[in-house]
Amino acid sequence: MISKNSLELRTQDTAHKGEDMEAKLLNKVVIKRNGRVVDWDSFRIQTAVFKAAINGKYKDKPLHANMIANNVAKVVEKVIAEIPFDKIEIDTIQNQVVNQLNDFDKEVAKDFLEYKVKQEINRKH
């Protein structure tokens, strides 16, 4: 049986870990493909995954697309927070997104890669 004090300690510990992760992410910057440096923003991951999912497998299921996007962004955020340096190349992040998508839904991982190829083509034009 879990005591009230034990539950409070676990809740505080979980909250503390969340604060630690947020603090680590505050120092992170992303090196874009063009060399620009921008602040870390996990919402960009969420948006890219959502767009890939909604334009692919989950075309008629925005709630499913959003759920996958949120879950992947959270996991990638945790992984990135643990990287021991503050400057992270976009390819490192993209690889983590693909790895996590493969765990969640391989078809959406494929949709994501196709979406990124289209983005790259659009950048060049």
Describe the structure.
The protein is mainly α and 125 residues long. The protein has one domain (4-124). It contains 5 helices and 3 strands, in the order H-E-E-H-H-E-H-H. It has helices spanning 4-26, 42-54, 62-81, 90-104, 106-124, and strands at residues 29-31, 37-39, 87-89. A hairpin with a 5-residue loop joins strand 1 (29-31) and strand 2 (37-39).
Helices and strands in order:
Elements: H1 4-26, E1 29-31, E2 37-39, H2 42-54, H3 62-81, E3 87-89, H4 90-104, H5 106-124
Parallel strand pairs: 1-3
Antiparallel strand pairs: 1-2
Task: Write out the strand line-up for the largest beta sheet, numbering strands in chain order.
Answer: 2-1-3
- Find the structural class using helix and strand composition: mainly alpha
Q: Could you give the distance between the termini?
A: 62 Å
Using only C-alpha atoms, the radius of gyration works out to: 17 Å
Q: Assess the beta-strand content as a share of residues.
A: 5-15%
What is the count of distinct domains?
Answer: 1
Order of helices and strands: HEEHHEHH
Largest sheet properties: 3 strands, mixed
Instruction: Provide the low-confidence segments as ranges.
Output: none
Number of helices: 5
The tally of strands reads: 3
Q: Please estimate the helix content.
A: over 70%
Molecular shape: globular
- Give average pLDDT, whole number: 86
Give a brief rundown of this model:
With 125 residues, the chain is mainly alpha-helical. It contains 5 helices and 3 strands; from the N terminus they run αββααβαα.
